[in-house]
């Protein structure tokens, strides 16, 4: 995909490009699944819960998606998902993608984002500063019986417990910076 620097996970300076707490928890990310750029081919949502790490000796992103999200069925369907990170100038786009549903709204139009097929089955956005193309390795539904701190339950008035996905980072796509 022209316009992006494409690197295998082993070659990408991930520690320099991402911060373990603020990149997800403060800056937020888009979780996207799709196999084409058409309106019905993909969906995305904003996420601020998740983590970077290492599992089974692979570099991973773990995310948490409630089954009530329209994005959930796309993530279930696709072997690959992407995590996209943006500069502050795109904060509004992340707010839009986190407050309306792709089941009802054309998110690309509403958020001013341009869907781009980075590689087969990996849908990203032209405006992202960095996108990680990842392969799902594992999922598990949160079981409230295992909450050791009962305060966690307050996050689930609808009992729509997240499905967690551990995803292996395959490649990164980033825009050349001017500095
Ligand atoms: C800052 C922020 C963070 C969010 N983090 C998550 C998350 O980690 N997991 C989740 O399931 N929903 C999260 N959401 C909610 C979804 O982004 C939101 O419900 C979205 O509209 C779902 O869109 P969809 O129905 O098109 O999938 C977050 C929303 C915002 C604004």
What is the helix fraction of residues, given as a range?
10-25%
Q: Ions, cofactors, ligands: which are bound? A: flavin mononucleotide
Q: What does the average pLDDT come to? A: 96
* SSE arrangement, N to C: EHHEEEEHEHHEEEE
Strand percentage, roughly? 35-45%
* CATH homologous superfamily label: Electron Transport, Fmn-binding Protein, Chain A
Please indicate the count of domains. Answer: 1
What is the strand tally? Answer: 10
Question: Do you know the CATH architecture?
Answer: Roll
Distance from first to last alpha carbon: 22 Å
Radius of gyration: 16 Å
What is the makeup of the main sheet?
A: 8 strands, antiparallel
**Number of DSSP helices?**
5
**What structural class is derived from the secondary structure elements?**
alpha+beta
- In the CATH scheme, the class would be Mainly Beta
- The name of the CATH topology is Pnp Oxidase, Chain A
Which residue ranges are poorly predicted, with pLDDT under 50 across at least 5 consecutive positions?
Answer: none
Shape: globular
């Amino acid at each position: 995909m022209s316009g992006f620097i494409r690197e295998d996970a082993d070659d990408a300076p991930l520690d320099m490009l991402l911060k373990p707490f603020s990149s997800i928890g403060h800056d937020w990310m888009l979780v996207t699944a799709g196999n084409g750029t058409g309106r019905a081919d993909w969906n995305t949502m904003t996420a601020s819960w998740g983590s970077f790490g290492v599992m089974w000796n692979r570099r991973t992103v773990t995310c948490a998606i409630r089954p009530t999200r329209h994005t959930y069925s796309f993530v279930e369907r696709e072997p690959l998902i992407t995590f996209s990170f943006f500069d502050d100038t795109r904060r509004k786009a992340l707010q839009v993608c986190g407050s309306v549903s792709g089941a009802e709204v054309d998110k690309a139009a509403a958020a001013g984002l341009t869907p781009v097929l980075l590689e087969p089955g990996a849908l990203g956005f032209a405006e992202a500063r960095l996108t990680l193309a990842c392969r799902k390795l594992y999922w598990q539904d949160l079981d409230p019986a295992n909450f050791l701190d009962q305060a966690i339950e307050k996050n689930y008035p609808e009992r729509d417990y997240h499905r967690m996905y551990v995803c292996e980072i395959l490649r990164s796509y980033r825009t050349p910076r001017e500095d």
